[in-house]
Amino acid sequence: MTGDHGQSFYETGTLGHGHEFSQGQTRVPFILWGIGGEWPEPIAPSDVRGLLDRNLFLPRQSLPRARFIPDPGRKMLQYLGPLDRPERIALRGVDGALAYDLLLDEASWIETAGEAPPMRPGAAEVDRLIHTWEAWQSVALDAKEP
Fold first, then answer.
1. What pLDDT is stored for residue 113 in this prediction?
2. How far apart are CA 61 and CA 128, in angstroms?
3. What is the mean pLDDT of each run of 10 residues along the chain (146 residues)?
4. Who's near 140: CB < 8 A, 6+ residues apart?
5. How far is Cα 111 from Cα 34, in angstroms, rounded to an integer?
6. CA-based Rg of the chain, rounded to a whole angstrom?
7. Which of 14, 72, 91, 146 has the fewest CB atoms within 10 Å, measured from its CB?
């Protein structure tokens, strides 16, 4: 059981969802019961089908328990607004996220696991974020074609 996003009830001055990359709007509960296997962190709703397919029919000794394994190299794309013209995009990992505001042309680190973020994201990191977003646009276009 999960949701695709959380809600803000004025915790950060915002009511609703899809307006910011805050904890309340981007980190939602993911509950598994009776399913074992290994599940990566971070995990996105788009990952669930494949992971269920891989883990649902594993041999059972007793009531299975899922193991969530943090993967520092795993990143997931987040965006605010439509995928083809968002206001902001981000690549989220277990240690935080790199966000880029397309309207202001500004990149920043958010939620960096309690550590002081680097002063400014490097060009290579921002390029990786932009290229990931572009690749997802291609995937979305391919999915729409008959």
1. 58
2. 43
3. 57 59 66 83 85 81 81 90 89 88 90 64 91 88 66
4. 83, 84
5. 32
6. 17
7. 146
The answer to whether the beta carbons of residues 80 and 104 sit under 8 Å apart is no
First to last CA, the chain: 31
Give dist(CA 129, CA 21) in Å, integer: 15
Place of tokens 């996003």: 5
The full DSSP string for 50-102 is HHHHHHTT---SSS---EEEE-TT--EEEEES-TTS-SEEEEEETTEEEEEET
CA distance 40 to 67: 8
How many CB atoms within 10 Å of residue 54? Answer: 12
Number of C-alpha atoms within 13 angstroms, CB side, residue 139? Answer: 9
Pairing of the two strands 67-70 and 38-41: parallel
Query: What's the confidence (pLDDT) of residue 95?
Result: 82
pLDDT of residue 116: 59
pLDDT score recorded for residue 30: 76
Closest CA to 96 of 62, 125, 130, 68: 125
Contact 28, 2 (CB under 8 A): yes
